Every structure is written in C-alpha cells, then in structure tokens.
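Just scan my protein:

——
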Amino acid sequence: MDFSKVDFLLSVHSLKQLPEAELPEIAFAGRSNVGKSSLINKMLGRKKLVKVSSRPGKTQGLNYFQVGNQFHLVDLPGYGFAKVPKGMQNAWQSLISSYLENRSTLRCVVVIVDIRHEPKSKDTQLFDWLRQNNIPCLPVYTKIDKVSGSIRGKNAKLLDAGHGVSKEERVLFSAKTGQGRTELISALGSFLPS
C-alpha cells in the first residue's frame, strides 16, 4: 500500500453525496473518542490529515480520503457518548447503516476498540450486526501503549471472548508508538485487490 498520496476528498452527510462507486472502500468505525483519527493518521504516516479532537462527536459525516488510485478510506462518526443532540445521533446512525448495508465497493470495516476497557455492548452489537449482514470486519485493539504487556494480553483475551474474535483475526495497535502499523497495513491489504 502506497500512502505517499493521500487527499481529503469530501464529507458526506447524505447518501446522495457519496462519490461514484469506483474504488474499493475501507471504513473505520469505533466509539466516540476511541482514537480513530489518531490511528488513521499514524497508519498513513501523517500528523494532521485527519482532525483529532478531545471532544467526542467531532466527526459528523462520512469523511472520505483517497489513497492514490488504490482505495477510499472512510472515517465514520463515532458512536456512544458523543456530545451532540439525539436527533443528530439518530441521523448519523441511519446514514451509517444505509452506507454499510448498501455500498457495493465497501471491502472491510475496521472496528477500533480501546484495549483498556472490558467489552462494551455497543461494540459487540456492531460486530454482531456486521456478521449478520456479511460485512467483513477487522477488529483493532488500540491504545496498547497505555497498558503493560501482561495486562495487554489479559485484556485482549477478554475482548476476544466478549466480541467472538480469534487472536488471528485482530490487530493490536498504538497510535503513539506505531506498534502494530505493519500488521494493520498487511491485514487491510488482504481486503483489497492486489
């Protein structure tokens, strides 16, 4: 995967605004404030391509980035405790589920989970929903730099069990140190045409 040319394309707030379904797409999903933007920036080798905010709910549309002529990376709004009106959250939910269910070029949804916390019901619901709809997903347990090695292993096993994931199916990642970047890029490559 060549990340030398990555550009912000557009922010989609309704299905009518989606770009032509030509390039494969990889979507990134996760709870509000899980570190989605930081992970994407680190993966791409950029500092500020994707805006990082400490305020939950910063991403308010489907943010499209074009990676060369290879694929689109789609940053989805976070779910969970975003500090936005309920009506706006419901609108996001409708947009996101319609996108995930109907986008012919979607190849994978990267589901980002904070390794420091026990399995959360919203994450479990997303994994279950993706499986029921036959949408490939890649679990990524992030913020691994914030826990020691023994705790990391224990927490990863708890998350695996809680979300029905095997060790081989997921990636451990740190947006701070870059640990797991090679594994993440390799895993994503398996969903894209060579």
